[in-house]
Write a structure and sequence with these properties.
Blueprint lengths: L2 E5 L10 E4 L10 H4 L3 E2 L7 H7 L6 H13 L2 H13 L2 E5 L8 H13 L2
Parallel strand pairs: 1-4, 2-3, 2-4
Length: about 120
């Protein structure tokens, strides 16, 4: 599975493959032309309640992933579509958070990689 995770503020590169924004809210200060998105899949992002609860607090990371994975379990169609795309070609999951280690795109990549093995 060819998955990468990248901040939407980072420079787009040809090797990114399909660029998919996986945030529920559009990132501040990024124009749609600069983002060079192939798609914006809001529905695969954490729910608004979960996003607000987490607040990018690293202390809540483990519990955030548990809750987010449960939300993803309820969206098998979206998850399978992302897996299929990543099986065919490189997919870059884009996010807007400042924290490069504790964000929904990192969690989503982990979920997709784990699910690909099962």
């Amino acid at each position: 599975m060819a998955l990468e995770v990248k901040r939407i503020y980072d420079e787009p590169r040809p090797k990114d493959g399909q660029r998919i924004l996986v945030d529920r809210v559009w990132p501040r200060g990024v124009s749609k032309s600069r983002a060079q998105l192939d798609e914006w899949i809001k529905e695969v992002a954490p729910s608004g309640e979960l996003r607000k609860w987490f607040g990018h607090d690293p202390e809540k990371w483990k519990e955030f992933k548990r809750r987010y994975f449960r939300e993803l379990d309820a969206k098998p169609g979206l998850v399978d579509e992302l897996r299929r795309r990543a099986a065919k070609s490189r997919v870059t999951l884009l996010y807007g958070a400042k924290d490069r280690e504790h964000n929904n795109a990192i969690a989503l990549e982990e979920y997709l990689q784990h699910r690909a093995r099962h």
